[in-house]
Amino acid sequence: MRSLAPGPASLVKSQEGIVFLLALLAFLAFALFLPAFFSAGNLLTLVRSVSILGILALGMALVVVGRGIDVSMVATMVVSVSWAFALSRSGYPLEVALLIGAGFALLTGIIIGFAVAVGEVPPIFATLAAGSIIYGLGRTFFFTLEMQNVPPGEDWFALIGQGRILGIPVTVVAFAMLCFVAHILLSRTRFGWQLYAMGNNPEAAKITGVPFRPMVVAQYAISAFVAFGAGLILASSASAINARLYNSTFIYDILLVVVLGGIGLNGGHGKIRNVILGTMFVGILLNGMTIMNIPFTVQNLVKGVVLLFAIIIDSLVNPRDEQTSQQGDL
Amino acid sequence: MSKSLLIKLMAVAWVVFVPFAAQAQNKGLENPRSTAFHGELEGKNVVFLPLSMGFDLTEGWAAKMRQQAERLNYNFEIRDPAWSTDAGTRALQSLIGEKPDLIVAHNPDIQSYARLLARAQAEGIKVIQINLESNTQTDSYVGADWTEIGQQAALAVVDRCAEGKGVSSKVAIDTGVPTAASDVFQLDGIYRVLDQHPEIEVVSQQATEYNPEKARAIMETVLQQHPDLCGAIGIWDNQDTGTASAIQQAGKGDQVFLVTSGGGNMVGCENVSKGLFSLYISYNVPLQGDILNAEIARLLRSDADAGEMKAMYFNPLTLITKDDVNQRNCWTLEDLQ
Question: Where does the sequence pass through the membrane (chain A) (predicted)?
Answer without folding.
Answer: 20-40, 46-64, 71-90, 96-117, 124-145, 165-186, 216-238, 250-268, 275-294
